[in-house]
Design brief:
The chain contains 13 helices and nine strands. By secondary structure, the chain is mainly α. The chain has a domain of about 250 residues: Glycosyltransferase. Strand 6 and strand 7 form a beta hairpin.
Amino acid sequence: MSQTERPEWLETAWKRVKDKTLRNVQRIGAGFPHASVNGVYQLEEPHWWTAGFWPGMLWLLYDESGDERFRLPAEQCEARLDAVLDGFVRLDHDLGFMWTLTSVASYKLLGGEASKLRALKAANYLAARFNAQGRYIRAWNPWREGEDNAGWAIIDCAMNTPLLYWASRTTGDPRYRHIAEAHMDTVLDRFVRPDGSVHHIVTFDPQTGAHTGSLGGQGHAPESAWSRGTAWALYGLTLSYHHTGKQAYLDAAKRVAHFFLSNLPDDLVPPWDFRLPPDVPKHRDSSAAAIAASGLLLLSRKANPLEAHVYREPAVRMLESLDSRYGAWDDPEEEGLIREGTSHYPEGKNIGVPLIYGDYFFVEGLARLRGAKTIFWE
């Protein structure tokens, strides 16, 4: 399959996405969906980490169609996030997820100065979370009394660093990129294992920067292999190579990709963790497949042309499987696009349901296949 060839099912899938999203806009509007509960997307407060994915999906569809019905709620979502950005106390490492898919997206497509300034403000807050001793971007704040997570970094943040690369490119100031690279070097050193599997949470002494261990997080155990975390690493490392040209990031992205692909079941949609004991249910996580598919499509462009098919072909098959086996196209009682996401199995939250980030990355993968010129992380 050539890099430009479009599979036969693609245009039908794209039309389904547009039609269903337009129906969802009528209810969701400028809301912030996370997980589907009994067929209806539960709306979260603007500070929730998934706030960027719905407007990000709307921007992808607007970019292709020019349809104002996608643009207007996307802009309203961005405006609603001002209270979070200016309120400060609810901000954590997910600044990248939230403002890359809102303000950076809007600025790339429309060029508005207000969106540019919002995104730069978010980049400054993200850069301020950098721990110079440990060379990591701190993940969360202590949301509960007595909680101490100042030394925690998580693999998800690999997808937040594109906000910093964008800020360096936009301002001409290399400091943002320095922080992004330092964090991603720590991902190489402490998160990615030799076999390509990935830790979710890595811990450090926040005073000295010394590495102190790892935690299971949303995976089954500290040494297991949470599939969505593997997808975050695959995509995030590829994006860091895209922005820096640093060979070590490309090499690690390939290693993670091969681990991910070699552990997939027949339908190419992984269980929520690749290393589960026999007595733990192997629920699928369709969101991990969607994230990985979009990352693999980028990786196929960055790899040697002779090996591009190694990454592109499974990505296309993964997206087709999500469309044909997991798509909720024929169910008017389900707002989500892609079924069988697993948000947080250890906490028993949102298991076997559509998740907005799964929907977003599925749409982004389709957009890549259709030759989209603007991908917001790039």
